[in-house]
Amino acid sequence: MCDASTKDLGRCLCVITGASKGFGRSLAQQAACVLQTGSVMLLVARTARLLQELKAELNTDVLVVHCVEADLGTAGGVNKTLEVAKKENVNDFDHVLLINNAGSLGAMSQFSSFTDQAEVNAYYSFNISSALALTGGVLQAFPQRPGLRRTVINLSSVFAHKPLPLSVLYCTAKAARDMMFKVLAEEEPDVKVLNYSPGPMDTEMQKEIFQQTGVSRELLPCQKSVAKLLKLLLDNDFCSGTRLDFFDL
Ligand code: NDP
Hints:
Elements: E1 12-17, H1 22-31, E2 39-45, H2 48-57, E3 63-69, H3 75-86, E4 95-100, H4 117-141, E5 149-155, H5 168-187, E6 191-197, H6 204-213, H7 222-235, E7 242-245
Parallel strand pairs: 1-2, 1-4, 2-3, 4-5, 5-6, 6-7
The structure holds NADPH dihydro-nicotinamide-adenine-dinucleotide phosphate.
NADPH dihydro-nicotinamide-adenine-dinucleotide phosphate binds next to helix 1 and helix 6.
């Protein structure tokens, strides 16, 4: 499954949210090939069965893999993920890598239809608040120390900056997350932060867009977009806080 690579991501604690499907799943498969022996991967999502299937595909001679069944739309889900991470010894790693990938499309509907504040809050709780709380918790649990590389990736979208009709929830969440991680980059110069816009990929999210709008687009296999993100991580010469798009690379 792994191609020979001259570079690696070190002895890494790698946390991937939304690892059960789509981009997150493909990322876990490819990232596992560029982690040093002794690395630990946390696979986070709601669907335990899919996480276990993924774990079975990964090379556990090299990696320890923990499946974390958690709903990140709840404080309990974020705390459970942090509890699993905190069981690791910070001194066992030279790299802490957090990929804030989990996300949802939400209802695609007219702006003026969103009159139920509880529904809106539930969407933002998962798509915005959980990324902040999880990232803050991971950075607290694994503070800066000499020799420790810390990297935080946010899965962004072209719709963080381009308004899309019928997508006020999604566009607003993606815009907020981009700014959230730009602030992190300003505050913590030792943390490498990237807003990565992965391009339109063939995933369940795109199937949902098609079901809701009837509009189909040319889609990329996730592997292609993952490969570009991994190259960015391996080269590690992007500017912290920047936003990079699949099509610009
Ligand atoms: P998918 O819908 O295919 O997968 C989403 C992942 O998030 C799944 O693993 C899902 O697992 C997990 N997830 C959903 N809800 C929750 C929750 N409440 N708690 C924990 N995990 C949850 O998405 P994609 O792979 O398509 O997208 C990944 C990221 O890339 C998203 O942030 C998306 O916005 C972004 N993106 C995607 C594009 C595309 O074309 N697909 C384009 C641009 C950006 P489970 O259901 O098991 O919980």
